[in-house]
Predict the structure of IL9R protein.
Amino acid sequence: GYRVSLQGNLFGRNHTYVTLPEYSPRKHIKLDPPLNIQSNATASKCQIWWSMWNVPWYLAEILQYQLQYKEYSMSWEVALNKTLPSSLPQVEIEATELRSGTAYAARVRCKVSENENSYHSQWSEWSQTTVFQKADVPKVSEKILNTKTMQFLLIPLSFGTLLYLFWNCKLSQKASPALTFPRQLLSFSHSIVCTMGILR
């Protein structure tokens, strides 16, 4: 620990004022802001990472970070804040928290974790910003979508028609000796196969 005093001259006389009788530097730390903040946004998430400079290893392991991000055109006063649970210099933002087609800006700051008793610090200044934008989700071709929809509709429709022809022919066999069902069924099945081939 240290003893901090202030000396001054008042009315031609030197005076010494004790301001902090017991000063511990490890309890009054202010770190430099994080550097080289970068980002990579996809359709599912945005990854943000940064680096620290001139931080001893025993402090790097007990740091906590706070992320702040906003829409690029908005003020930082309305930005969202996230205090990260890990001391790793990285974070992910889920795509559900971002709007498609909107640019965002993010920055980060650091301090010693509040759960640490041996050291204490205040928040550093904010880092430089990184700008990112959520990637658009690729759209399925409308033609492919319509084709698959027709295929799904055709299957139950075909099955229902086959049942109708089966029962209709079964009832008509009592009135006619000729067995017409196989010929009708073969013709209808051929038309179904041709239709599905066209859809593909």
In short: The chain has three helices and eleven strands.
